[in-house]
Amino acid sequence: MSSTLTGCAIMTGSPLTHPQQKQALPSAVLSQHEDHLSRATMDRLLHRSITYHLGAGDVVSVSVYLHPDLSVPQPGVAATGMVGTLVSNDGNIQLPLLGVVHVAGMTTVQLKTRLTRLYAHYVVDPKVYVQLQVAHSIRYYLLGEFTKPGLVYSDRPLNVLEAMALAGSVNLANANLRGAYVVQDGRKLPVNFHQLIMAGDLQQNVPLQTGDTVVIPSVSTMRAYVFGAVVKGGAVPFINGRLSLLQALSDAGMNVNNLTIARLSEIRVIRSEGASGQFYVVNARRILEGKATPFFLKSGDIVFVPQTDVSSWNQAIQLLLPSLQAIGAILNPFVSIKFLRQ
């Protein structure tokens, strides 16, 4: 006879197994509330203006008023097809009189200011104009469940949907949209891909920066994370896209021999997606006894099994922090931004 929680739950006999009893079981959720990232945080992360910075492969034209010999391309040369000077792989351009000038990472306004200062050594009160002619340095990485994943280029800054279109369509049958994310400047952005793709929520269609990575993971990567009074805390995989709370606890090593060390009647579950988080207190003991309906987890859920009474969510988060910090890189953005980056 199995000693796991799932086996124990079957042994107790759920009322639903008896045909004569039709009454539905109550929910095991004792309480639930929702929280959101602040508007200021969202504006800082998602809605800032994306300014174009020059990079390798770009072509810029430079004009110096009343000094055509210093302009690139020079008058008459543009007709041959040359529209400016190419930014080299080292991030440099070649200009008359000045020679090699490093421009990578600069905006056209910053380059204009720098060239004005440099040409002032040779020309009285120079009037310099800089224009981006060809943008070839914008690139995005589209990884995961795309029909054409990989590195894509653009001639202008794009938003999420525009960038995704460059990688073909999304294989929705195998895509874990709740686990999808954008990496920008080394951090995950709180973009809700499920709302964006399935509900058409264009508030999630945020602008991207060159070098951003969009990841649509497979359903095979779906995981929940169990911590607290369990034998082996950490990631628990979903099976065919499903995972119940009791299955997750069993997979984390909890069985009928160690139930006494766990407060099964007040298990905490943090569920997050995009900029929102839901906080549940679940009575798993009633599920185990067949007195409540199963509680099914979603990808990215964090389950905390307390060993003693937990008086508040703040206390639960403090107990969870060391575990969250250990897996910070794979957490959903809401959790990492809300609790790990105050």
Please, how many helices?
9
CATH topology of the largest domain: Outer membrane lipoprotein wza fold like
Written as H for each helix and E for each strand, in order along the chain, the element string is HEHEEEEHEEEHEEHEEEHEEHEHH
Unreliable sequence segments:
7-19
Class derived from helix and strand content: alpha+beta
* Strand arrangement, major sheet: 1-15-14-16-12-13
* Distance separating the two termini: 48 Å
Indicate the percent of residues in helices. Answer: 10-25%
Can you tell me the number of structural domains? 3
Kindly report the average pLDDT value.
88
Give the full name of the CATH homologous superfamily of the largest domain: Outer membrane lipoprotein wza domain like
Biggest sheet layout: 6 strands, mixed
Tell me the radius of gyration. 28 Å
CATH architecture type of the largest domain: Roll
Key structural traits:
22% helix; five-stranded mixed beta sheet; 16 strands; wza like fold; Outer membrane lipoprotein wza fold like; 3 domains; 342 residues; 24% strand; alpha+beta
